[in-house]
Amino acid sequence: MARIRASCPTCGDVELTTSDVKVRVCTDDDSGNYSFRCAHCALTVVKPAEAQTIDLLVASGVKMETWSMPLELGERPTGLGPITHDDLLDFHTLLEDDASWAEALEQLG
Description:
This protein is α+β, with helices and mostly antiparallel strands.
């Protein structure tokens, strides 16, 4: 099993095995990072990684996970302004009213 040297912000340089490190790559923009839990202080460390670093880690046996950005990021809000304090108060009142809940659930279908 390959040994990997990384840096913990609390403990400094630490030695890890391939099973201690995880690589994540975003399929939308190819950005990546690696993470590990420091064996000395138990801090989870996440660091950005360029493609070359990711390739070296994966070639060493580190498992790679891919992820995609949420579809909601592409949605454009329409017509409504930011939520106001009054909106929150109205919502709170609706949460306390069982009849309003039933009506809202019926509208959802």
